[in-house]
Structures are given as C-alpha cells and as structure tokens.
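Predict the 3D structure for this chain.
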Amino acid sequence: MKPSASLLAGLLSLAARTGRADPTWPAATDEMEEIVFQLSGHRGRLFSDLITPCNNEAAGPGRVTASEWLRVAFHDMATANRFSGTGGIDASLQFELNNGENTGPGHRTTLAFYANYLSSRSSMADLIAAGTYASVRGCGGLAIPLKLGRKDASAAGSTGVPQPQNSIGTFRQQFDRMGFTSVEMVQVTACGHTLGGVHTAEFPELVPAGTGVNGQVGFDGTVAVFDNKVATEYIDGTTTNPLVVGPSVRLNRHSDFKVFNSDGNATINAMSSLEAFQNVCKTVLQKMIDVVPRGVTLTEPIVPYMVKPVDMQLTLNTPGNTLLLTGSIRVRTTDLPGDSILNVVLTWKDRNGGDKCGSAASCSTTSTQQGVASGFDDTFAFFPISTLVPASSGISSFTIKINLRDGTSQEYDNNGNSYPMNDGIILQKPQSCLLQGTGALTATALVRNDLKGLPVNLGVSYLVPRNNGNNPVPALNTADVVMTEGDCFGSYTVFSGSFTIPGGLSYNAKVSVTAGEGETAVTDDFNHAGNLGGSCLPFSGSVACGGDATSSVISSSTSSTPVSSSTQVSSSVAPSSVVSSSQISSSTQISSSSIVVSSSVSSITASPTPARKSTVGGYSLIGCWTEGTGVRALGGAVFTYDEMTLESCMNDCAGFDFWGTEYGRECYCANSVHSSSQEAPEADCNMLCAGDPTEYCGAGNRIELYSTTATRSTSTTPTPTATLARQPTVGAYTLVGCQTEATVGRALSQDSYADDSMTLESCATYCNGYTYFATEYGRECYCGNSLNDGSIPATQTDCSMTCAGNPFQYCGAGNRLELYRLSALPSSAITAPSATSTPGITPTVSPYSFIGCYTEPPTGRALTGATYASALMTLESCAEFCSAFKYFGTEYSAECFCGDSLPSSSVNASPSDCSMTCAGNNLQYCGGPSRLQMYERDDIAAPPQPSHPATVLDGAWSFSGCRTEATGVRALSSKGMASAGMTLEICAEFCQGHKYFGTEYGAECYCGEDFEEGSVEAGEADCSMVCGGDGEQFCGAGNRLSVYEKVEA
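Done. Predicted structure below.
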C-alpha cells in the first residue's frame, strides 16, 4: 500500500530524531558513502557495474567477477597475525601477487578496477572491504555492515594464505593466527565458496582441461548466487565442488572437505538452511573485513545520509559582486517516495551568521526534484541548487527544509550544527583548467581579503602508475605549490598556481586550495580535476578592491600575476569596459600596466529575473522541444558541466546548425533535429542554467533549442547539408572503433599532443609511422605501436565528442579513444594472406622465427617476463611488446607473453592445438587454450636455465628427487617456514639437524627425518617452480617437493 503523505512526513520526522541520524556533514566517510550507496542513475558512481548482474564475467569467460572480489578480500586478510598485530585488510595484496599464494588474474583485475576509486578519502583497503559488501549484496546475500578507516600498506606482508594441500592442523593454526575459531574457519570457507569455482588455468591438476564450463568447475550448482547450495550439496552428497571431490582427493588437495569435515560436519550442517547461511555469512564476513593491523581504528558502520549536500561550490560571478552557489541536495527516498516531496528549501546565513542577503527578500532558494539515483537497497532524489549570494556579505552555513505535498515539512540542521559553507577561499573553476593529455594544471583561487595575508597553497593528490608492472595499483602522491597573489575584485583577491600532474592519470587527480596552516586553515578541497575544462576562461571584473564597482585604476602592484612560469605578458588584453583577473589561461598573463575599471555598477542589486533570450550570438531561439523517442533530438556532440550557460553551449557547438541546453547543465549539438522531437510548451523549459541563473537551460527531457541564422556558403564553413559521421579511413589508417584507455596509464603511450584545432587528419599526420593513432576528449591525439594492458573495445556511441577543429568528425570522449590502425603494416613484418584468405602459420615476425605450438607447464606460465592482453592482438603487436625478450608467444587469441627461457615442462604440442586466430588479424594463428604460438629470436642469448643443483651448501646436502606430499599430512612434518625470497640454501640452513629438507611452491620449506605415508616419488620435471629468491633454482611446485638429503660426514 502506498503510504499517505502524512505518514511519510512522520517517517521523515522519525528518521531525523531517531538513532538513524545522519553523520555530521562533511564527514571523512563522504566519498566512500557515495561509492558504496550511490551506484547508478544521476551522479551514480558505478562501483557495482562489473558485478551487475552477479553472473557478469568481466575478466573473461568462466570468471565470475563477484567471486573474485570476495576472494581478494580473503587473500588480503589471510596473512593477518593477531599475535604481532600485523596484516589484515590493508591492501598489501597488491605487493604479493607474485609470491605463489595468489594465483590467477582475478586479484590483479579486481585491484585494477578498485584503483579507479583510489583517493586520499578512499583507501584501497576500504575499497577491498567495500567490494566484499557489494559482491555479497549484489548476488543476493545480506548487507554486511561496512566500517571505514583502513590504512594501506606500503609493502608486502608475510606469506600464509591457506593452500589446498595443507593439513587440517595447518588450517586450524592459520585461521587461529587470523583470529578465527575452528567453527568460524568452516563458516568463512563456506561463505567464501558460495560464488565462483576453481579454474583450469590455475589448478589444472584439480580441474583438467576440457572439464567444467569455460575452464571453471563451480563450488556449487549456482556459481552466481549467494545462497546455501555449497552447504546443502555437500551435505546431501551431490556436490561437484572440486575441493571436495574429484582429482583433489587423490592429490590430498580437497581442502573444502578437510575444513567442512573437521568437526564431523556439525558447523556445515548448521548452515544448511538459507536463513541460517545468510545470517552466519553476514556475521563472519563482517569479522573478516574488520581484521586490520594493530593501531587502525575503524568507524561505526556507514549508512546513507537522509539529507546530504553534494558538490556544493561557490564561484565569483562577473563583475565580482555576487557569488554563485551551486550543487545539489540529495534526499534518501527509500522510505519516502520522491513524488511525495513538493520541494526543498535551502536557507543560508551570511558570513557573520546573520541574515544579510543584499536586496533579496530572504536568504533562501527553492528547488524541485531533477534527478534520481539508486543503490542495492536505497533510492535518492536530487534537488539542484543555483542561487546568487552577495559577495560582500557572503555565506557561512545553511539549513534544509523538505516540504511535503500534504503541507507538512521537516527541517534538517546537520545535527544542530547547520551545514557549513566557507567563503574564505574558493577554487574558481571557470578560470582553472587541466590539459588531460599533458597533465598541465592551472588553478585559480579567490581568497577573501581579510585572509589574503595568510600563505596560500595549491594541493594536488594524484595517481602515478608503478614502474615495475607487477602492481596494478598506482601510487597515491601529493604535491603542494605556493600560489601567487594577483588582482583584487571587491571582497576577494586572486591567487594562481600551476602544476604538471605526472603519470597520465591527471583526470583522477583531486585539487585543493588552502589559506593558512594547521587547525585555523580554510580550504576548498577534494575538487575533481577531471571536471575542469581544457581551457581557462577569462574573468571580467569591474568591482573595485574592497567595495562596489567605481571608476578607478588598479595599480601595478595588484594587477600583475603570472599564471605559470611559461606564460607571457600582454598589455592589451581587455577593453576599457572590463578588467580581467589575469585573463587566466594556459597561454596568457596580465601586464603590469594600468587597466581601467568601469563604473557600471554602483551597488549590489537584486538578483535579475530569469528570461528567455531570443538570440545568442549568431543563433536564434526556436523554442522548447522534447527529446527524441529513444534517441537524442540533437545527435552530434555532447557537453556536460556545472558552469553551463547559453553562451558557453553556443561556443561548444560552434560550426553546428543547432544546439540546445537541457537539465540545467547539459549541452547538445547537431546539424539536424531528429524527426521524433516535438515542440513543447515554453513553460516546460523551466530549469535555470547552472552557470547563470538569469538564463533558462531546458529541463528534464526538454531542450532550450537554438538554430543558426548564418548563411553558410564559403568553403571554410560547413554547409547545412554537412553531417557528423564516422570517418572509415584517414590517409593510410583505417577506423578500428571506440576504445577505452588502459587500466593504468594511457592506451597509446609513445607520443601525444593536444590542440584546440584538432582533426583526425592532423592527428594522423602527427602519428605518421606509428601503427595506431587515436583522438580523445575532442582535442587530444595519441600515438603508439601497441595498445597497453587493459584497453578494450567500447560501444561506438561512447565516442561522442566532436573534434575541436572539425565539428563533423568524432574525436573520442572522456576516457574513450577514436582508434585508427595502419591499413597495411610493412611487408617484412607480416605474411600476405593467401588467395583464399584463410589463416596460416606465419613463419617469421622479424626478428623472431616460429618454433612451434607449446604447452603451458602444469603450474605457472611458460613465459614469465611480461604479459598483456588486447582485443586487437596480432603477432606483430606481441613481437613489438616483447622486443627485449628472447621468446614471445600468443595464447587464446588475445594474450601475449614474453620471456627469456622456456621451462622443460613446457613441451611441443600438435600444431592443430594452436588453432585460434588472432583477435586483431583473423589470417594469423594466436595459440589456443593453454597453448602458445611460440616465436624465438637468435640474437638474444638464453639465460642459464633453472635446475636442481646436485649439492647445496658446499656438498652438505645432495639432491634426492621430486616427491609428492603425503596423505592428509605434510611429507616432511618436523617443521616448516615460508619466504617470498626462498632459496635452497635458506631452506638447508633452516633444516640443519634434520635428515631431509624439501622446498615447495617456490616459497615453502619443510624439514623431517622421514617421509609420511602417501608421499611417493614423482618425475623431476614435476618440480618446475623456480625459487622465489633464486631464478636459477627449482623449489618444487604445487603438491611437489624438491627434496635434498643430508650427506653423512
């Protein structure tokens, strides 16, 4: 039954007064609160996209992404030591991906996705915990209470993730070390194994090739549902869990059976009902993600705000006597349908806590709903704010009133504190800009005159990919730049600063400007650099310093400010009627000569009444029009930003016949209006422009539509019949399609430039000689011979931005590349297709020669030097990527591997096994499942091959062979240790006084006097994993020991 308005008012009032009180805003948890709860819709953070629906396999067929998210949390936590207070959820996993305990691509791809959200307010450790919440809830489990405040490790932790071959005694010891009882050990294992399964690629001995679905055998029959099947199927004997039945039993790697059976199945039986299973998992998985290093204090579990201000921002308007307050008020509508809310009223206090609002009747503004969003359990409505505040009196705080349609209302005052809004320092976004291609940032701050004597600094928090390639998580760095004082307008003084953001991820940077130091500092912080424009706009101010506009001359001491060390001075940048704060852009400065200020304003006037503009530049108003049916009315270019005005949209759409504004902050361009768009009543377009509340900018599904008045007849101006379209070829290049950026860094990283006159032709010319060129964000050009890891094809419509220099060409979009590839590569590098155009073996890819189809070894990879995957894989691109290595091999159509040696366990296979064509060239073969199309170059000498030395420690120990583990226990059971830097010598020293030592899994060492029952000799080739600390030695493998015996004196 739909609740009545009066009941809804009661619920709203109750929420405000009961224990579910909102946090006091702003809170340190605000960024994570949005990432976790505000998932889709208006301003959706999209954190759950890769696991929605739950059976999504973003990392490849057979890999349920949600299960990988859950496993990442366990692997990160599993090295915790409650005795020493180390480990737990601390993101140390990013440094531990190659230690032999964390196999498979799932850890790496999960961490790479989380890295998109890494910031100073969202640690990787908190994101890993949030991923557990999301994977469980998104797949049908109960919501796990999520605390925050975890700190990221800066290096690898200890080893100790449980492995399938461990004995139950070892499992108990490991879980006890983590802080879990034997009962909780069973619960964690069952809850962690209700999603996903075991993969052939990582455990071929448990899941032989050809079994399962897409190389995976599930833990239960519902691999993408968080349910109790993993328990019930085990109990009734129908399970196909490869860690309970199958080859794992013979190999003593049936770890789930060992754990479930450890108490006679008592705990797993108690989890057989769905309700019990869900409740147990909620409790034990919360305990898992709450395991943190000693000294880390977690918050209370976060909940979504009932009322939350979002992106509240001040901007100084021209001529300098008013501040534009923009942002949104987000209201949680989970228990309060949005249609029951009449409006939201924001009422502010002036700078001194009073009600000084200039000539306005009251210090308030009213907003109606203009957007909705949702999460797993909540819905939200957004009420946009755009109102003028007198700069002379300013703003210090505000309160919110929600008016319901039944005439009742409820006020929110931030738990008695009011919502703070500091006007002491402002990041002036229109006059700040970022060139994403080069990372060149120019920031402009406005500092209130009573604070300008304080030190003013620009702070930048940014991500830089790590050099070694083994860590998918970029480093979080910070920089502080002293800002330079410039001109003064009314109550504010301009400060400017520049910084070049390294690393290629400038769009992820966060920008702050701060006046003062310590607890008394005032700041405008955590501004998203990616929301800044590519060009800094000029500011025309005509208000005298310290007061209202009068006729005066600003002295040279206050009118000269360098924006950056590379800009130049011009003394004629403004007409006498306006003055620029510094004509702030990436290429201009103000001279120190006198600049005349007009006397056009004598006092602060009332806010102008919004009105229609019949003409804007060379365009005339057609009226208010609907969107098309299922399509955009204007299908050309798209621009979205919080400073939208009719004039800025017109400039964005220069060269188009039509443009229109929508939803207050959206701009659309085209040369024709879709036939399904219809004229609507003028009153429907009732939203004010986000950047100018005196103008109308459409509404939801309504466009304020303008058409050109120009007659286009010159050769330099597009005619009205010209159409925006994809260009299939550009010179020697052919369109590949729309492509994402790489996981870390740029997809094409060998050369780049940016230009406000960008065209496809100019980018192709610049990249001449490279295999690929691509345009991005309308004005950026990138070149390269291969696509970097993580760049994948995107929907063509994602590349929706037109080229800055040609509005009839597409030039990518944000994080999207319009990608072109050479139509033909040099003949020396490829084999010409046969007359029948059928795939064939390519004998040479200079300087490499084909040596055959090779298997992957039983454990690990045949080539371990470097790797990448691409939907455009060719033999040439793999050869280029591996040019520094002796071998390269392509596998499974789209994977490339490099290395300097081949292990003996990788053997020549039938050529028919390598029958998959290359993803980027269907006339070439690129291996197959677990099969490599292998090439070798003769001009690089092979390094020494790893081996089992005949003796160790000057002949004190002699090689005895390769053996299996015992049945249910360790083959060598006296003592053991593990180290990521394991060598045979380290293990020999550790086992002094014992008859045998054995190394296993590249990093483990065991000692004993004899071999336990069930341990048998194996072929030496089975012990094929190199030692973690010495690449020329073998240290066993999975369930295999490289055994040495003490030599009798």
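The chain has 17 helices and 62 strands.
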